[in-house]
Amino acid sequence: MAGSSESSSAAERIGYITRVQSFSACHRLHSIHLSDEENKSVYGKCNNPNGHGHNYKVEVTVRGKIDRCTGMVMNLTDLKKAIEEVIMTPLDHRNLDKDVPYFSSVASTTENLAVYIWDHMVKALPPNLLYEIKIYETDKNVVIYRGE
Ligand SMILES: Nc1nc2c(c(=O)[nH]1)N=C([C@H](O)[C@H](O)COP(=O)(O)OP(=O)(O)OP(=O)(O)O)CN2
Ligand SMILES: [Zn+2]
Predict the structure, then answer these.
(1) In this prediction, does ipTM exceed 0.90?
(2) Which of 3, 70, 116, 136 has CA 20 to 30 A from 83's CA?
């Protein structure tokens, strides 16, 4: 019956699931498009040549149909594997600027880190599932990227 709880329970449901992952890395904010003086002025203490570290927290959210048979949008075990491959292996305990080739020419801001993770995660997951990458650089500094 239209509108009854029975019919809505048969309707397709969309769910969002998130897995949280922490990793540690160091970096220096520096843009190859700016002079040394401009870098100092724009990034301040974060342009210190010897860098500084963060305990980043990343939330990876997928969105999709809740499968009627499995009850899952996707298996969190598979999401965990993708996070290991895309986040932990290349980024954990690394110097982002020196160890990750992408950041040799792209400033390692949290915005750009979110784009990097999105671009790799989207390839590691089934099509059309990735919804959002949210990164806590510190407790107070949070970036969201949705692939736009
Ligand atoms: N738009 C952005 N601005 C800044 C970024 C960034 O990624 N995107 N990053 C930084 C630095 O990396 C820096 O490490 C931030 O640290 P800090 O200012 O010390 O962090 P808090 O604000 O949490 O610290 P408090 O000193 O407690 O306020 C800078 N800008
Ligand atoms: Zn920083």
Answers:
(1) yes
(2) 70
